[in-house]
């Protein structure tokens, strides 16, 4: 019988890493240079040494997994993996940090600086992509037979520059100098088709694509920690099946001769940098199909190579959909099983359904993917026919269960008949497809999963209640605690022992010690050192000097209306006005830090960035304010910048309108690093508060049900403005151009919607937010009490490791199907 997927640590197991190897390798590389070793040369030497060691471990892992017996293999399909830098993580995994430091020759910069020479691998937008990267870390560390599957984008997330207070997007060029973490796999190459026709012959359908590209595998290695296992992110790169059309070339038609190559290169050209509105563009659909088709062909080839029975492919393998972006997978798997492997419909569907599971990451209606049928038909004619057949059978099931309810049938159909918002166009609904094809569908926090079955998927949940569940997100403590905050990690070792490094739930032991005088003082010292590092970065980056003993109040994440950076900014303005009105009062000094990227076409988000800069110019130069308040926007938020910012935060802002933030994962990273949270009752904040004790969090604002009710009853933001003198003054100041630098029209576009509709209820939550911030100030005045609460926050975070999350998936989503 197939057993539940479980760590296979024996063959490439937990043995001590070979500590002596890296210095020799690195020295050799460094010795080849005659000039003084600059940071980038040191980086290259260390990276190639680490690569060599990891490549050996990777090969051993592959061999071990081939002999994994009947354990299911997990295939995690995602259009995004936001990996960040790898060398620091690799040295930690190899336990070679000290050796690496020692290997650096005289005159070389310190290891910390050397590591900064690595460009981030930013093949993701935000939360969804970073979650996938944390999962890979857990796959490797838990020893799970698995593959991450993604695309090798030449240009990842754009780099953000700020010019005159406005965001400028610059192309990301992470691959320019190549990547030492990649292992090209020339023997792994599959043909992916687009367009063309379907022929029916001898009882078999056969798709004859008009165009084909070759999908080339390039493996990105992912080291495990406390184990020799190394996991694989298999990235696909499209290449021309025929690199040059020589006939066209000889007749002098060079454009035509290079046509195929350009078409293939376009597929890997760039990551879609929008995480809010579906990119209803042909190139995106082609990218999604490239990922899906190459990954499934690879899966099937491996299954058969290892002697698997094609009928058992769904028992032996998991195909997990990270949101709907890879939701063509069930259609492609059906096509391969029906047309290429000759299974009948029922057998193919059983295997597909057994293999497939799906995670939903957002309820925002504007982010739900649908594709126009004429586009799907043109690019993927066979897949559309399969979707029709799936739908036909599925709707029969719906009709049998709910006779006569044609309204319900229309709501549940895979096809949007298009009377609605898309100008009458008929469309394929990817979320519906993912739900129908999957045996399990999960949300990413308790509240989100509940709202998912109450709203977005209510009809499906009535039909199949057992299909839906929650798996709360988590983050890897290797990167987000051990690597980002070694000072805090050392403090934890000293006071509760090192067990938490293997099993994060051991952090619970900190709770009983949190009130201690010594540990509190040590914690504040560690925090202060991290703040000094961030302050230095702020000085270098912006030329702004901030007080290191101020309260560092931080909101870093994608800029979105629902995340309400604007609410935070309104509160900053209120504080500014209050300071100016009474500069002599005993103010808690604050440094308010923002960072985050706006999608390039998202006007409201860009307006927020502009307003932050406009307000900062006024506040930071007002002599009446001095160092009581500084407002900082750090450009180009990224994984590596997060590793600098998060350990330095005293206060974490998690202030989305309740019911909108599916989970959040930044919230977890902050709390794990001893920041207190000011937050709404939303996403995973709720579970965090319950784990650490609700009184340990500064909770404010409407709850999700209250927010829904207020909106249903007809919400009028002006009533709240009229009811709050402070809010009125803040709005007036913006409206009257106090931050407009001589251009009174400047903030109209941002303000008007707030006064008229305010869909994210900023006005309704403002007073409550201000009160929560007053409670923050009050606790800050008592450093010992603050430190004790911060330590209790950390103590409560044991459940938010991505190891726990992956354990949940293994038990509840990826367990083998019953006979
Ligand atoms: C949508 C699109 C639309 C087309 C262009 C590319 C693109 C990329 C991403 C998305 C969906 C983004 C959804 C997302 O990131 N959700 C976040 O997922 C996190 C991990 O579960 C969760 O913590 C956040 O609360 C949630 O916003």
UniProtKB/TrEMBL annotation:
Annotated catalysed reactions: [(1->4)-alpha-D-glucosyl](n) + phosphate = [(1->4)-alpha-D-glucosyl](n-1) + alpha-D-glucose 1-phosphate
Keyword Glycosyltransferase: yes
Family: Belongs to the glycogen phosphorylase family.
Species name: Ideonella alba
Keywords: Allosteric enzyme, Carbohydrate metabolism, Glycosyltransferase, Pyridoxal phosphate, Transferase
CDD domains: GT35_Glycogen_Phosphorylase (cd04300)
UniProt key word NAD: no
Gene Ontology cellular-component annotations: cytoplasm
EC number, as in UniProt: 2.4.1.1
Bias (Low complexity) ranges: 1-17
GO annotation terms (biological process): glycogen catabolic process
Name of the featured protein: Alpha-1,4 glucan phosphorylase
Disordered as annotated region, ranges: 1-21
GO terms, molecular function: glycogen phosphorylase activity; pyridoxal phosphate binding
